Write the structure tokens for this entry.
Amino acid sequence: MAFEGAVRRAGAEDAAAVAGLLHDFNIEFDTPSPGPAVLAERLRRLLDPAAANPGGRTTAHLAEDTGGAPLGLALVTWHPNVWYDGPVALVDELYVVPARRGGGVGGALLAAVVDEAERVGAGAIELGADEPDVDALRFYRRHGFVGGFEPGERSFFLQREL
Amino acid sequence: MAFEGAVRRAGAEDAAAVAGLLHDFNIEFDTPSPGPAVLAERLRRLLDPAAANPGGRTTAHLAEDTGGAPLGLALVTWHPNVWYDGPVALVDELYVVPARRGGGVGGALLAAVVDEAERVGAGAIELGADEPDVDALRFYRRHGFVGGFEPGERSFFLQREL
């Protein structure tokens, strides 16, 4: 499904727009957020290709309507993995504003990530998706992801905060 | 529980030992492996601190018995994340040879990863664990991980190979 608008790679100059979407995302799902200002400051560093990011490379894709208003984003961390020649793309966030869900924005963002992953020779795309987010899980299953669907054969995304 | 031996950071010169353990790991769990030679070649590059790893930083910890024979390893990728000031440690592999399981080797390896994570100011430790690996899931739950244990509140680790 196509949507009226376009997806493009975000640069450091888009940090505020990306931060605003990420903040809205966390507010919607009752997850703590450090606030748009802190997020924007981190993103200016993470999305600057000239900056030294010793931990790895981060990319963001923005979906915008025909007037340039942000509709969603995909935030991806690229890291090496011993099982593949190329990197693995870890989709840290994939978010579409509530009013535009079900209209192809998420699919366009994921397609942009897949294009980028194929361009750089990535071996796989990985992400964590929460069990209550049934729409997200259905979306990823439809787009060829495995690991979260067959009871007894699933993989869990575990975390320990420090 | 302590074990007779020690855990140390592996360097590029340990690539063959790490590759051997990873290969054995995949053979044991019927997962395809590119073979120890290919893994060792990749690890020589990934574990060399002087090498350019554009995708991020990889570390390996080796557990060895008192004679220096490898008993297990932890392979970790460190990547930036917008939700934390510091990096996130993604535990790609944590493996203990079958004969030494249940003897504290895994706990010592995880403790070494936690030490390293605290040293570099990491925000969280993350990993994927398969549903059939009940011993591994119990181990991670005991060590303070969340996300894979309460039905309805779990998070799935999804993957799409390219």
Remarks:
- The beta strands of chain A are 5-9, 57-65, 70-79, 88-96, 124-130, 155-161.
- Chain A has a mean pLDDT of 92.
- The longest helix of chain A spans residues 105-119.
